[in-house]
Amino acid sequence: MAVEGRTPEPAQPAGFRAFWARYSPLFVPILAVMTALVVGAVIIGMTGGDWLAAYIGLWQGAFGSPRALANTVIRSTPYIICGLAVALAFKAGLFNIGAEGQLYAGAMCAVVIGTMLQLPPILHIPMGIVAGAVGGAAWAAIAGILKARTGAHEVINTIMLNYIALRLTDWLIRSRQPLLLGDPLDTSSSRTPFIAESMRLPNIRLGETTALHAGILMAVILVFVVAWFLNRTTIGFELRTSGTNPNAAKYAGISVPKTIVLAMVLSGSLAGLAGAGEVMGVRYAVSTDFISGVGFDAIAVALLARSNPIGILFSGLLWGALLTGARLMQVRAGISIDVIRIIQALIIMFIAADQIVRWLYRIPQRKPGEEVLISKGWGG
Fold first, then answer.
1. Residues 76 and 358: beta-carbon distance below 8 Å
2. Which residues make Cβ contacts (< 8 Å) with residue 143, sequence separation at least 6?
3. DSSP conformation letters of 242-261
4. Residue among 98, 324, 317, 121 nearest 219 (CA)
5. Buried residues in 225-242 as b, exposed as e (16+ CB within 10 A)
6. Domain residue spans in the chain?
7. What dihedral do alpha carbons 303, 309, 311, 315 form, nearest 10°?
8. Chain segment 32-45, per-residue pLDDT in tens
9. Tens digit of pLDDT for each residue in 74-124?
10. Which of 359, 107, 99 is closest to 215 using CA atoms?
């Protein structure tokens, strides 16, 4: 019976509702991206640009040639790995805003191993990877211990640790004191020495003139390792239980403070691996403008995938494609490159407010108890 004053929802076949109930977690993000592109096309048109030329340029700039594809994959790799870092913390009920600082910490540790040791590649490459993971883990552990021991909020701590990591990196690079990391051969004082050839990641050939580094293999492996860890191991279950209901976790005998520290350490190690991968596969040094914004954009990548590790592989590739194709899009359509940022913001908006997407496409609304837990950290 219809309730007075309310418009009844259109009747839908039972099979249709069952289909959407099962597959809407997959289709809603896809529809959110499509909707953002449509709204973006309207914005481009309102500014006098050619939206079709813009999107053709975006596609060709991201996937239109082997070189474009390689650039997209290379650009996506740190977003995928940092997205995993953020998602793992989300699963434990923590909001790790510090992936940027942890990335820098891992990158600097990789530089130390790459410039101060001379080893064969079979040893040097694994040591660089381990150093990156340890550096990121150690930096994240600070926030984890403060949260577990004092209740200090991880959002505030990780944001402040980001600033400390960036400023500390800048000082280490620009200083010419002994034992610090500035390159005496760099007259601009803007980077560390280059790492040894023996610690550089091997290339994967795409044709005769195009190659990408093996860091993408590390990213793909990490996607499946994190998925297995969270869903198939006892520790992963404890992390997820603590994130969903800390009181139930305590009742089950799980040490929540220990879980907080462990989650932050593991999250930081992943972010540190992203930094080490950039050093070993792309830049071979850390500069004062090394890589900016990846840690913050990784939050959007994780949200787009709803913290699903497999989904992060695709959302990271999407993020990299948008950034890689932006320049050709700008040239072809004569529009500002900031349009890409607008589209990214629209994607996140529609993902965060997925009820709008469900309403637009007549997907059954989620029940009140089915909201996706992002983080319980905001509650203190």
1. no
2. 96, 98, 152, 154, 157, 158, 161, 264
3. HHH-HHHHHHTT--HHHHHH
4. 317
5. ebbebbeeeeebebbbbb
6. 82-312
7. 60
8. 889 988 998 998 88
9. 999 999 999 999 999 999 999 999 999 999 999 999 999 998 888 899 999
10. 107
